[in-house]
Predict the structure.
Amino acid sequence: MKCITWRGRGFAIATVALAAGLVAAAGAGAAPPTREDLGVFPYEFSVDCSPYGFAFANNVLGQESLWVETFYDTDGNPVKIVVHDSFTETDTNSVTGKTLPFGGQIVETFDLVSGTRTVVGKEFLMTEPGKGVIIHDVGRVVFDAPFHVSFEAGRHNVLHGGTGSHLDQLACSALAAD
């Protein structure tokens, strides 16, 4: 299984979506928005939990769904790209077999005029049946530069953890708990 980081995956998806929107814009001669369904992407990978003090791997199996809207000015130039992204997965402790559902659904808006990126929705939510919420990153965040938050509302314990490895640590800890 392939090991990838969450922030790397999100950056790659955003880059692909942005490129798809700009390609669509190249052929656009009119002002109406365009919509491109990028499809559903199954994925499977494993995260080594030993850096966080656990002797198991988090085996992840899921799927992600993406579609992109591109908005244009009257001259046909792209001014805004909106990425609709959702995922559902199951995270599994490789030793005990404990599983936890994990998912998210966001709308990510790239304002090409102002240079901002706004993320709205349930970016990450993991719950344990009978115990409640374990990972919770929801609300609205506006970035005015890469990784620089200019506004936020909601609960963001993944965002404030730093890198994608923080998300891996949270998931590994949840899978280790009884």
Strands lie at 34-48, 57-72, 78-93, 99-111, 116-128, 132-145, 148-153. The chain has one domain: 6-176. The chain is about 20% helix and 50% strand. The two ends are 26 Å apart (CA to CA).
